C-alpha cells in the first residue's frame, strides 16, 4: 500500500536554524493503517505529527484545539458514505485556516467535485507510494490542489447535457493561462487580439462559475480540461 521512506530533513534547517515543520493530524478508523502512518510520519523530516486519532464525534474539537497545518482523513467513501461526507464537512469547519486532505481506496462519482467545492485540498488514493504522499501533503500545506489524475478525472460526475463544457479554443487558452502568461502574451501565441483573449477568458470564468483566472486554472484541472502538472502550483489570489 505505502512504500519508500522519504527524508525531508534538509528542508527543516535554513542558515543553521530550525524552521517551522508542517503540523499534521491524522484521523481514520483503520487501526493498522493508522499505526503504519504514525510510525512513518514520526521518522519523516519536515512533518510533525501532533495527533493520530479515530474518526469520532470528538475529532473536530481536537482539530479546532490543535489547529494543525494539514488534517489527513483516511476514509472508505463507499456506497454508504454519507456519514463520512458529513464528518469531512465538520472537519473542514474545525480546521479554520488549516488544510484538509482525504485518502481513500477510491472516490465515487461526484465526490471529488463536491468535496473540493467544500474546501478539501487533496484527494489521494491508498495505493499512493510514501514519497508521493508526503510531497502531496506538503504541497497541500503550501496551497496547492492535489489529486492523482485518475482520481480527479474518473471520480468527477459526468456533465449534464445542458451544461456547456469548454471548447477546444478555451482549453488551449487555459493551458496558456496555467503557465502564467499574460493576456497580451496569450494573444500573441494564439494570433488573436487582446480583446478576444479577455472575452474568451470571461466566457471560461462564467462556464466554470469562478471569479478569477487562478480559480479558473484550479477548476480546469479538477474537471480534467488541463493537466495537473500545468497548474500544480497555482493558489488563489
Describe the structure.
- The protein has 237 residues and is of the alpha/beta class.
- The protein has two domains: 9-154, Response regulator (Rossmann fold, 3-Layer(aba) Sandwich), CATH 3.40.50; 168-231, Orthogonal Bundle (Arc Repressor Mutant, subunit A), CATH 1.10.10.
- 46% of the residues lie in helices and 15% in strands.
- The chain contains eleven helices and eight strands.
- The chain has helices spanning 31-42, 59-66, 82-95, 111-118, 130-141, 149-154, 168-178, 183-190, 194-208, 213-222, 228-231; strands spanning 13-14, 17-18, 22-28, 47-53, 70-74, 99-104, 122-125, 146-147.
- The protein is elongated, with a radius of gyration of 19 Å.
- The two termini are 36 Å apart.
- The relative contact order is 0.11.
Summarize the topology.
Elements: E1 13-14, E2 17-18, E3 22-28, H1 31-42, E4 47-53, H2 59-66, E5 70-74, H3 82-95, E6 99-104, H4 111-118, E7 122-125, H5 130-141, E8 146-147, H6 149-154, H7 168-178, H8 183-190, H9 194-208, H10 213-222, H11 228-231
Parallel strand pairs: 3-4, 3-5, 5-6, 6-7, 7-8
Antiparallel strand pairs: 1-2
Helix pairs in contact: 2-3, 7-10, 8-9, 9-10
Give a summary of the structure in a few sentences.
The protein is of the alpha/beta class.
